[in-house]
Amino acid sequence: MSERIVLAYSGGLDTSVAIGWIAEETGREVVAVAVDVGQGGEDLEVIRKRALDCGAVEAAVADARDEFAEGFCLPALRANALYMDRYPLVSALSRPLIVKHLAEAARAHGASTVAHGCTGKGNDQVRFEVGVGALAPDLDVIAPVRDFAWTREKAIAWAEERSLPIDVNKRSPYSIDQNVWGRAVETGFLEDIWNGPIEDVYSYTANPAEPREPDEVVVGFEAGVPVTLDGQKVSVLQAIEQLNQRAGGQGIGRLDMVEDRLVGIKSREVYEAPGAIALITAHQELENVTLEREQARFKRQVEQRWGELVYDGLWFSPLRRSLDAFVDTTQEHVTGEIRMTLHGGRAVPTGRRSAQSLYDFNLATYDEGDLFDQSLAKGFVQLWGLPSKIAAKRDLG
Amino acid sequence: MSERIVLAYSGGLDTSVAIGWIAEETGREVVAVAVDVGQGGEDLEVIRKRALDCGAVEAAVADARDEFAEGFCLPALRANALYMDRYPLVSALSRPLIVKHLAEAARAHGASTVAHGCTGKGNDQVRFEVGVGALAPDLDVIAPVRDFAWTREKAIAWAEERSLPIDVNKRSPYSIDQNVWGRAVETGFLEDIWNGPIEDVYSYTANPAEPREPDEVVVGFEAGVPVTLDGQKVSVLQAIEQLNQRAGGQGIGRLDMVEDRLVGIKSREVYEAPGAIALITAHQELENVTLEREQARFKRQVEQRWGELVYDGLWFSPLRRSLDAFVDTTQEHVTGEIRMTLHGGRAVPTGRRSAQSLYDFNLATYDEGDLFDQSLAKGFVQLWGLPSKIAAKRDLG
Amino acid sequence: MSERIVLAYSGGLDTSVAIGWIAEETGREVVAVAVDVGQGGEDLEVIRKRALDCGAVEAAVADARDEFAEGFCLPALRANALYMDRYPLVSALSRPLIVKHLAEAARAHGASTVAHGCTGKGNDQVRFEVGVGALAPDLDVIAPVRDFAWTREKAIAWAEERSLPIDVNKRSPYSIDQNVWGRAVETGFLEDIWNGPIEDVYSYTANPAEPREPDEVVVGFEAGVPVTLDGQKVSVLQAIEQLNQRAGGQGIGRLDMVEDRLVGIKSREVYEAPGAIALITAHQELENVTLEREQARFKRQVEQRWGELVYDGLWFSPLRRSLDAFVDTTQEHVTGEIRMTLHGGRAVPTGRRSAQSLYDFNLATYDEGDLFDQSLAKGFVQLWGLPSKIAAKRDLG
Amino acid sequence: MSERIVLAYSGGLDTSVAIGWIAEETGREVVAVAVDVGQGGEDLEVIRKRALDCGAVEAAVADARDEFAEGFCLPALRANALYMDRYPLVSALSRPLIVKHLAEAARAHGASTVAHGCTGKGNDQVRFEVGVGALAPDLDVIAPVRDFAWTREKAIAWAEERSLPIDVNKRSPYSIDQNVWGRAVETGFLEDIWNGPIEDVYSYTANPAEPREPDEVVVGFEAGVPVTLDGQKVSVLQAIEQLNQRAGGQGIGRLDMVEDRLVGIKSREVYEAPGAIALITAHQELENVTLEREQARFKRQVEQRWGELVYDGLWFSPLRRSLDAFVDTTQEHVTGEIRMTLHGGRAVPTGRRSAQSLYDFNLATYDEGDLFDQSLAKGFVQLWGLPSKIAAKRDLG
């Protein structure tokens, strides 16, 4: 068996061409690996056949949708992960899963190298290569687009010369990455950050401005895991998929932002993540009801760092595991139901109920039954304010 | 001149009764102080006369709307202050301003004591008393509702006995605090956290679910200060007021949450803050365009602490001044314009332009003119991932 | 069985008097509970008898030294817990353990109330009462010294009137709290913060200024737990005790500081903690060798919060458990040996060896065998500095 | 005038050879720039002449000791900057100052490129290049040692061939960087991290183990700036220099640690920083006396980030300026005196006095004159513990 290269294969033009190109350049056999993370589109079997037709010595496809939902989207949900308080880490979550499959395929097929199709100015190259380094530090990585300055034009010419079974004309004006957790869109006219997105950009979400009837959903969680929708048992994957439909149908989860990439530049990004945003919204409100105050306050810092770390390609790092250990302990009591209205681009919690609630009606109420002992407040207020009072005596003196 | 007591006066039943009650209990003269922070409602002169009619020896009213907007709302905007990532600190911002006026009135009128009408289970007592302690540590504070277990029923009886010029029947089912930055509503049926709010609860915002035409606004900032709306010069107060109208007219800024009070309990709160939410949304996006990455990341921690601190009644504390110093330096380049669509309860940025932008088209574009040197990326990625790669070699070994 | 009160009993004057005084005041039976946390001094059996002689209906004593070392000192060591970067939380660690024993005794003896002898201006009242609230929220707490303004003079008079078997003249000029993790001393002349401590203040440590031979020790850790001293197996308790002797004999661990109490005032404190400081020093250096960089950086924030939280009496809080979960995951590889010189008041690491080391000689060396690929550095440096370079172009422009 | 290159010149072998080598390789004129940051050693004029003798077309030397002390060491002192809680950032502080002089020299001499002699595996390359990028983003940087794999052996051969006026045999076994803030030493035998340092390694500090008389010093600060030693006015530079002598004479400030470099590896470092450690120790204790608690707590996070940022080469970044703004506001009241004993390797505060003190004897004392109102404590403790009590009721239930 010759030394092989495992290629992260999407079925599209660039990676289809890469199969043959890498084989020619390196003289080594190429194994194509495609992973279904809920991106939709073509059947995995079609993709597998195309890889072989394009010259792959083997082609492996994997339905990793449940693994993705449970092992990657769920930790993000429990961490309410929103990079820059906005972006639910769509691509940043799928890359480590793909890396895991690549590393396993490399072991299975005796490959010493993996290849990916990322450019040199994005975040995904970091996520791929740092991930490979952390899961399989002995593997080499090649990145033809980046390291050999490979352009789309070159790819098309290469494909036409060799009559590869790819429709090179089916070019979308958009550069898209999508999975069950969301969808990212880049395109030329949005690189002018004064331009607004047009409806054509969107695919997971309906136009929130169009009049339609509101939808109401009750999301049930157990220990921070979404387990029911309107009382029906669902898997994590089903919860996301069904809310992609229902929240997406109400135009929820559109994002348009300027974002700080790890490679040092700012970029303009448009995202859609209806299920992710609806679930995070419900989860945050259930945490408001069930987490103790100081734990909740520190968790926000943990959440911010979690989002930065995963965005920055450090999923497989010791810190992510430690942050997850923190988050896991906070989720023990995040059990209960959140009722939300889905409408007009907004997921709005309107009710919450939980046997684990820390909201105590008898302490909170201003009506009869009030058990809160107001006589304690004066001493509390006095000592709470004592440090700033002492400082004030000095500063005003 | 006898020793006087300065009372924070709202014009409502409780503080109207308090005037006479405090006078009777303490044998001292009561000076009523009312501050207009944009709460709307009655004319200040009407309020002033009522205070005198209820027995105040003097009554001072102040239009502090511009002072509130510039000295309190603006720092909150620059800090993107959202307690628990949601609540824009409506009451928490007005209390320190009122305290400032109370302390000044105490000096002016030779009073040694101030009084407020807060209960013993809310946050506002803390904000009043810690504020007084920090601004005028020599003043005493009395809180009849809390310290003398004073109830509404007692107040009504007291008012009727003495024929005070107050309509004791005009009782709202809602407990409301409002100012130009927003409006807070509590009421009995919302103390059951499974109940959703009804339309009757809201006053600053129209129903977002009703069909209407979208509004589009361009907010211009200079150094983090909103200075224009659609190109027209505005003061900070005008910016908030006009966006209260326009964003409120589109149903923007409604909040319904369970919140952690400083006194140790969770409470259910409904807020409306159309102008605040629209301005913070625009400001955040302009920061995305104009702040350097590491500065922006640390600023999020500063913002969280700022919100907690002000919520917790520590406006007049050394830490708030230090956090503000941090924030101020970040705002130097937050200059430019954000175009937003206001519609259906959402304020959505669709365009940004700034002479201070750090978004560099030539580094970001994937089209012609790309100046980003992709050959630098490999080294970056390798060294960025080196710590987790070294750890992986150990951990997998 | 009448309703009983469980009293945290130390054997000293105040709590001896409290037994009878509480019984008289409340008409209830008092159960005395004394816990050995390594404070030394009298035999537990002597203390037990004194409690009975003073009127306790029952007296329970517990040797909790191993429990204290493993359940309280060890988490503090793994968190490198130093409040205000100095104080290793001596009393703050023993209080929750004592609370645990009190709560268990209350259950065992059918008591509905616990009592402690703390004053109203220290931290320990918080640790006792918040701890009781968290472990046994149904129990009441009474604090005679604080709530009944009980003074030492009153206690002496009370003891003499009733001829209690206590030597009321054996009064130390020092107020001392000590356990195996360290010793805290307060005294009148140190309340003038310009006065330095005198040798008489110290008991756990020899004078570091006296000439003596250095000592060298090798501390071995497994997963963050000290397990050997100079190659000899030790329990956590033995590690602390032996280092109290050896490091104490070299004058290590003396601390003299002004500290921020939770009740809002600053106080002057003198501490001795030879074993704690020696162990934390060794542990920190072993972490330097075995923790990945980003994990270590965030752990510092966790450590700070851990120290504040435990100082502030929140040992039994959800956040402490979550912080511990974070810390636990970081300790998995903190295995190896640190060689330290103990001398002249300093514990100085001079060598470290670990099979779990992330220090890689071949990457670090400047001599032959260097495997670090310096060609990667240029790209790294360029992209690392890109955000500040882009900002500079704007700011200088 | 031909296009010139400005070289950071130390006077040593490597950069002396670099002058001619760069000239030959690039065909451009080399301007040598040497900056005195208190590293001692040769006279600046000797260094200047050597640069010219080695072929520099111009040689500029600058005594930047006061600028370094006031502009770089002082902010570090006010931030109590200790990377990894240990290292006072000796080299990390001098690099940005040198960069500033290089950039100014490049402007003055019409150079479009700067050059430095750093290797590709250290932190200093980052500090140089990111600094240049931030101060003069138009300048190019060359790094012969890194980019042309230049070795010491090559340098010696090159120097001998051309008979450069350098003593190539005067080779120290140590790689040293020093300035007035401290001294860093690396050497082959210390790359084995089990080996302890030998006395020969040290130059700024006497052996702390040798018996000698203690020294006592009173350091006076005004607004966080050291202004007196034992009552004598000093400049910042003088304060550091005199304490380098006095604390160094007592063996204070030796550090031996394994450290996380920005380029992803761990390295073994030995430092001496007697003046820095003595000043930071005094400054921290004065802050304990004069900073309000919450401000002090958050400042620790700011300090940690400050240290990381400057260590990581981001001195000239927007975040450093914002962190400094925070720190500056905290220093307003850091005025007063700290008395320290210097002895046996330890700087130990024994007394503090300050007109700005927040330590209030009458609140702190347990003797007569106690003004602390203990009756306030019960309410405080109850509400402080309420969140964990409510959580406990749920969790134990």
Give the SSE layout.
Four copies of one chain form a homotetramer.
Chain A (H helix, E strand, L loop, with lengths): L3 E5 L4 H14 L2 E8 L7 H10 L4 E6 L1 H14 L11 H20 L1 E5 L8 H12 L4 E3 L1 H4 L4 H10 L12 E6 L2 E6 L27 E8 L2 E5 L2 E2 L2 H14 L4 E7 L5 E7 L1 H17 L2 H19 L6 H13 L5 E8 L2 E8 L7 H4 L12 H8 L1 H11 L1
Helix pairs in contact in A: 1-7, 4-5, 8-9, 10-11
Subunit structure (chains A, B, C, D): Homotetramer.
Pathway (chains A, B, C, D): Amino-acid biosynthesis; L-arginine biosynthesis; L-arginine from L-ornithine and carbamoyl phosphate: step 2/3
Pfam family, one (chains A, B, C, D): Arginosuc_synth
How would you describe this structure to a colleague?
4 copies of one chain form a homotetramer. Chain A has about 400 residues and is α/β, with parallel strands linked by helices. Chain A is built from 14 helices and 14 strands. Chain A has helices at about 15-25, 45-55, 65-80, 90-110, 125-135, 145, 150-160, 235-250, 275-290, 295-310, 320-330, 360-365, 375-385, 385-395; strands spanning about 5-10, 30-35, 60-65, 110-115, 140, 175-180, 180-185, 215-220, 225-230, 230-235, 255-260, 265-270, 335-345, 345-355. In chain A, the strands form 3 sheets. A 5-stranded parallel beta sheet of chain A has the order 3-2-1-4-5, with helices on both faces. Chain A has a 5-stranded antiparallel beta sheet with strand order 10-9-8-13-14, with helices on one face. In chain A, strand 2, helix 2 (about 45-55) and strand 3 (about 60-65) form a beta-alpha-beta unit. In chain A, helix 1 (about 15-25) crosses helix 7. Chain A is elongated and about 85 Å long. Chain A starts with a strand and ends with a helix. Chains A and C meet through helix 10, helix 11 and helix 14 of A and helix 10, helix 11 and helix 14 of C. Chains A, B, C, D: It is found in: Cytoplasm. Chains A, B, C, D: Pathway: Amino-acid biosynthesis; L-arginine biosynthesis; L-arginine from L-ornithine and carbamoyl phosphate: step 2/3. Chains A, B, C, D: It catalyses: L-citrulline + L-aspartate + ATP = 2-(N(omega)-L-arginino)succinate + AMP + diphosphate + H(+). Chains A, B, C, D: It is an enzyme of class 6 (ligase).
